[in-house]
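Session log. Operator J.P. requested a structure for one protein chain; no other inputs attached. Running the standard single-chain path with token output.
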Amino acid sequence: MTDKHTRDYSWETDLIWHYFHEVTTPANTWANWYTEMDPLGELSNRHRVYELLVDEADHTYPGTQEKVGKSMIPWNQNNAGFLKRVGGALWCGSLVKIVLVRYMGWSSKEPTARDIKAKGFNAALWTINNLKRNVPVRASLGGHHYVGIVGHRCRGKPLPPGMQGPEVCSPDNDFLCIEPWAFGINATDSIKYAGKNTGFLGIIKQTGTVWTYGTELIGWVET
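Structure written below.
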């Protein structure tokens, strides 16, 4: 069967495409956390994860809490099987780490946090350089919620009046992130990715040293 998927070129870097489409090796690391969510082992197939995210609305854009509970997006904090596995605990930060280890090359060591406003630290450049090396970044919303940064694009700045031409990048960026809480926690309701609505991805807006995710502020970034 011909694969009809195409990359979402609105993103300059895109680790969703890289790790769930270009990389084809099985993702078995830390699979024990998925014994209840994924008893048949479908999520060891990277391409199957991409299909769930862009092809299957009940999984990527679940319209009811019952459907959220059945969604097999591997970073879905509220999958009923995953909640059973962790005794009902809210594990957004740990689940993001599990996904980054299982699929995207992170080690299991405790990540190092970096304050995005620390003196001398260019958090945006540091994050982009990691993404260009196919290294995802975990981001904290003040410690009460976490997302995983998996892509970026620059935001264009307006051309002078009367001028035409290609958009020029500003110093500010959008960061694509995996969202473990369906439709966000005090963030955007959903976004389009590869032309499809999804409640399991979000966009962080970086403007200088201020990073916003919906109504939330990003405090630090980690690898």
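Operator note: The chain has a mean pLDDT of 92.
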